[in-house]
Specification:
421 residues, alpha/beta, seven-stranded mixed β-sheet, six-stranded mixed β-sheet, globular, binds ligand DWN, binds zinc ion
């Protein structure tokens, strides 16, 4: 463990309480996106404690330890996917948020964690003025090259003030799969208040804790994901920091997410019925009680054991197994299930930045789809299962020639040409 870059969570970042229920603990695990160059030895590879706790007061689920964001994000390997699923989703976000905010041509849209600028490019096509803010210098450079102006910074109150002075107020501030990565929620929300137009909307997309709990999808647990939110927790959070939760929508993207719209209370935008409906569903599922999290921990133990046993039995039958998608989630699965380079031939991934490297912790080599096509395994462990439909369509030939996929959640299952949807 590298002690100077990590600190244990003490007080809840949403409500300030410190009465935590221990949920799961995975020991020391390397960072999910810290891909390595192939080497003879990986002795110095950093690993940090990984586990989840639940705040008994507001039911935020949090990782047990926070790793310095400078370590995790200044150079980043995850490039927003250009898959059909995500391309369609980004168009949906641009249309839906545009309509809900009532965006007019020339209105400013600012995105936190804007990666290489794909989402903002969709807003620009709809006529918005766009500005990205992303701490990953390598990705901000790519976004700037494609013409999406991007500041290589963390979004803080200071950054927000600078953007306000240089660009004016934003009618939409967007954070897709970045809000759950932020420790200083007070600072970021102060920045949002400083930059948001009086009738503006702050829209975020976060993994939904209900999906995590229902599917036992423990692979979404890694150091980048500091928070797993329920709607009731988000409601508490925004009220605490002078904002108002306006709308929530469950979306299938990234294995189960919430699109959350937030505004200034004084703007008088209406609150939709889905907010109360989802809070009521969370109450019905008794997500305020310790029992729900004990049940999650039990399910995680079962999936972990079954998945590991399934891969090992396929190997014992003489099959060659490889990973499909060197996702951050995949790093968690492989490390937590103890599946390494002895078990997995390689991991295929479309991201050029990842190809030729090895996965954190397990040191499984990452290969391009071209390599995978020329040297296919018998079975793929689907590590990007959130794109399962798209991948099964794309890999119809692999399935037709007898190849199989393992889908990990909610119960590990083998998919062949006969069973593929
Ligand atoms: O929150 C986060 C989410 C949104 O993105 C980040 N903390 C990190 C990242 O998580 P992830 O790596 O688990 O995300 P994805 O989008 O599920 O990653 C899929 C991986 O699989 C990418 O590396 C691309 C790859 N892929 C592939 O090789 N072939 C994906 C598809 C669809 C494919 O057909
Ligand atoms: Zn709390």
């Amino acid at each position: 463990m590298i002690t100077e870059s990590v600190r244990p969570v003490t007080n809840c970042r949403v409500c300030g309480a410190s009465d935590w229920q221990d949920v799961v603990s995975f020991g020391d695990v390397p960072l999910a996106n810290a891909f390595l160059e192939p080497a003879d030895s990986y002795e110095d590879e950093p690993a940090y404690p990984l586990g989840v706790i639940s705040c008994r007061s507001c039911r935020l689920m949090s990782v047990t330890h926070v790793v310095d964001p400078e370590v995790m994000y200044r150079t980043y390997s995850y490039v927003t996917s250009d898959s059909e699923t995500i391309t369609r989703h980004m168009e949906f976000i641009a249309t839906t948020c545009g309509e809900r905010v009532g965006l007019a041509a020339g209105d400013l849209v600012v995105e936190l964690g804007s990666n290489t600028g794909q989402q903002l490019a969709a807003f620009a096509r709809h006529g918005a003025r766009v500005l990205g803010v992303d701490p990953a210098r390598n990705l901000a450079a790519v976004a700037n090259e494609r013409g999406v102006h991007t500041l290589p910074e963390f979004f803080t109150e200071t950054t927000a003030g600078d953007v306000h002075r240089s660009h004016g107020r934003a009618r939409l501030i967007l954070g897709r799969h970045v809000f759950a990565h932020i420790d200083d929620l007070a600072g970021v929300l102060a920045g949002v208040r400083a930059l948001l137009a009086p009738d503006g909307v702050f829209a975020i997309e976060v993994p939904y804790a209900m999906d995590l709990l229902e599917k036992y999808a423990f692979d979404t647990i890694y150091h980048e994901h500091l928070s797993y939110f329920l709607v009731r927790t988000l409601d508490t959070l925004f009220a605490r920091y002078g904002l108002k939760l306006l709308d929530v929508e469950r979306l299938p993207v990234h294995g189960g997410s919430l699109l959350v719209l937030v505004g200034r209370p004084e703007a008088g935008r209406p609150v939709t019925g889905t907010v109360g409906e989802l809070i009521a569903a969370e109450e019905r599922a008794e997500l305020g009680s310790d029992a729900a999290y004990r049940e999650f921990a039990r399910g995680v133990r079962v999936v972990r054991e079954e998945l590991s046993a399934l891969v090992r039995s396929l190997l014992a039958e003489g099959n060659r197994v490889a990973g499909y998608g060197a996702s951050a989630k995949g790093t968690t699965i492989l490390n937590i299930c103890g599946l390494g380079a002895d078990e997995m031939a390689y991991c295929t991934d479309t991201t050029a930045l990842k190809q030729g490297k090895v996965l954190p912790g397990t040191h499984i080599p990452v290969r391009s789809p071209g390599h995978a096509r020329n040297d296919p395994p018998d079975v793929y462990l689907m590590l990007a299962w959130n794109y399962a439909d798209e991948i099964l369509r794309k890999e119809a030939d692999f399935l037709r020639s007898g190849g199989r996929f393992i889908l990990p959640f909610p119960k590990p299952a083998v998919i062949s040409a006969d069973t593929a949807r």
